Write a sequence for this structure.
């Protein structure tokens, strides 16, 4: 609790910054975050990364949700990626990550903001230019989007239903962003519309969690009637807040405008919640652990690695040259090519197993990590930045020390962003340099960067051909051949002479311009790339 006291002592003190103290005068704000609690509204302390990791590891079978106003996903994605990768190396994770104010358009390309082991569920901005919502859901869970039939006034939300055989009942997760509108009419319309959405799920046998940036300061429920009515309305629908201390700070005060509301059930009654001292934006990330059995996120103790040394590859090559298998192929014109392919595939697989055997190695979090450009030095630098931010929060804003620490933090953040971009750029530069004579591996690296992965999908059980279900593979192949062989003739038959217009009718103006191609070399292309201006958006 000392960290929470140290942070709030210069923001008006613990009592004025605790929702528990405002609602429950005899509340024990000193209760440790790791303790079990049966209070309807329990204190959520400020914690550092290492303490958070201990809690997540302890609550490994809980359903864990992280939420934060990210203030542009493109500019903060590398930081989020490093954070998630570090958790994975510590053998823990969040099951859902909800982000608000992502600055994300409706049809934005999301290939560069994919997280390993998570499904990226997005909704484009509609209430503000800084809007846009994202839910990253653990791939061990399935989901479906929920259409909301309520017309929203100046705010946005996304709702999904999460289900899995390891969950006793489904979860409905709502992600909300309400821009800072301060008129009473805006507060009232938001409350009414949110309650209309909540009423859609009443009577449904599921858990309900609503998180986000509401821009309604719960620390002023006793000062503004409209804020008190908002909280009472949620409480009357059994939705209780899990975050009780400020989530956004100015130099002299804090506001509790972000939260996680959970419908009161046996699973949500006993929760563990906290606020991180990290800095993705000017909002603090916060989380809660629900007592719901979830899929365990485990890291393997051992991994299989191909023994592809240069010596083994040379032995394989010499053996393939010495044992020509082509003489055993059936060269008859009517032969089945699949049989020849199977012979070659089995022969090659046998030889590879002799010379390139699998090695079982102990899993190493740095050697076998998924995001290889993230170095141990970058992780240490981020932890140092978090330490600087924590010290800034613990410093009185009217002192010279505060100004010095704030300047130091800003300078360090700027340097860290440059270091991360350089590390990522240098890593992929080495990759492309190594693959510059191998176009297949070059495109493989590009697709890896763009998160374009081949989806392995099974064949359908049958094909519908004019109402007839065909399941025989031989007949299916013939029908496809028949379709593509006759497609030109079929399209030609649909063309009527009266609709034919000569292409010359569109060429009324004479074009005197011409395109000239000149031969260039690799050095010229590299010079153009090097002269490109570095921007703050994610990617290369």
């Amino acid at each position: 609790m000392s960290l929470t006291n140290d942070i709030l002592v210069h923001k008006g003190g613990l009592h004025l910054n605790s929702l528990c103290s405002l609602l429950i005068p005899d509340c024990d704000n000193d209760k440790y975050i790791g303790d079990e609690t049966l209070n309807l509204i329990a204190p959520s302390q400020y914690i550092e990364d290492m303490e958070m990791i201990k809690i997540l590891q302890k609550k490994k079978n809980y359903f864990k949700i992280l939420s934060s106003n990210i203030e542009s996903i493109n500019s903060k994605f590398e930081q989020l990626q490093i954070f998630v990768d570090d958790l994975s190396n510590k053998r823990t994770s969040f099951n859902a990550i909800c982000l608000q104010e992502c600055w994300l358009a409706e049809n934005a390309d999301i290939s560069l903001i994919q997280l390993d082991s998570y499904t990226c569920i997005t909704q484009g901005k509609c209430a503000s230019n800084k809007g846009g919502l994202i839910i990253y859901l653990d791939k061990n869970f399935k989901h479906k989007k929920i259409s909301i039939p309520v017309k929203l006034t100046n705010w946005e939300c996304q709702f999904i239903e999460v289900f899995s055989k390891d969950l006793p009942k489904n979860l409905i997760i709502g992600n909300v962003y309400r821009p800072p509108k301060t008129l009473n009419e805006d507060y009232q319309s938001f409350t009414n519309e949110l309650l209309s959405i909540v009423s859609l799920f009443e009577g449904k046998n599921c858990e309900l969690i609503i998180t986000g940036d509401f821009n309604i300061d719960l620390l002023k429920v006793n000062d503004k009637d409209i804020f008190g009515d908002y909280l009472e309305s949620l409480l009357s629908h059994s939705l209780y807040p899990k975050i009780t201390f400020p989530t956004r700070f100015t130099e002299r005060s804090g506001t509790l405008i972000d939260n996680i509301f959970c419908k009161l059930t046996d699973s949500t009654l006993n929760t563990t919640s906290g606020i991180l001292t990290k800095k993705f934006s000017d909002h603090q990330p916060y989380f809660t652990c629900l007592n719901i059995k979830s899929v365990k996120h485990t890291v393997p103790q051992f991994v299989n690695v191909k023994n592809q040394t240069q010596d083994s590859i040379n032995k394989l090559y010499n053996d393939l040259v010495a044992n020509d298998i082509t003489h055993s192929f059936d060269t008859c014109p009517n032969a089945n090519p699949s049989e020849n392919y199977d012979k070659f595939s089995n022969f090659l697989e046998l030889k590879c197993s002799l010379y390139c055997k699998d090695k079982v190695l102990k899993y190493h979090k740095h050697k076998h990590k998924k995001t290889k450009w993230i170095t141990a030095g970058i992780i240490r630098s981020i932890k140092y930045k978090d330490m600087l931010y924590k010290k800034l929060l613990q410093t009185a804003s009217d002192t010279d020390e505060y100004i010095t620490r704030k300047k130091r933090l800003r300078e360090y953040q700027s340097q860290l962003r440059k270091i991360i971009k350089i590390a990522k750029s240098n890593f992929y530069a080495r990759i492309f340099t190594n693959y510059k004579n191998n176009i297949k591996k070059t495109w493989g690296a590009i697709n890896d960067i763009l998160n374009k992965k081949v989806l392995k999908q099974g064949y359908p059980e049958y094909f519908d051909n004019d109402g007839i279900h065909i399941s025989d593979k031989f007949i299916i192949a013939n029908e496809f051949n028949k379709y593509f062989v006759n497609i030109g003739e079929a399209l030609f038959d649909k063309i009527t002479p009266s609709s034919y217009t000569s292409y010359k009718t569109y060429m009324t103006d004479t074009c005197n311009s011409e395109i000239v191609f000149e031969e260039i070399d690799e050095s010229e292309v590299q010079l153009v790339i090097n002269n490109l201006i570095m921007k703050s958006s994610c990617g290369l």
Residues 32-38 have pLDDT under 50 and may be disordered. The radius of gyration is 30 Å.
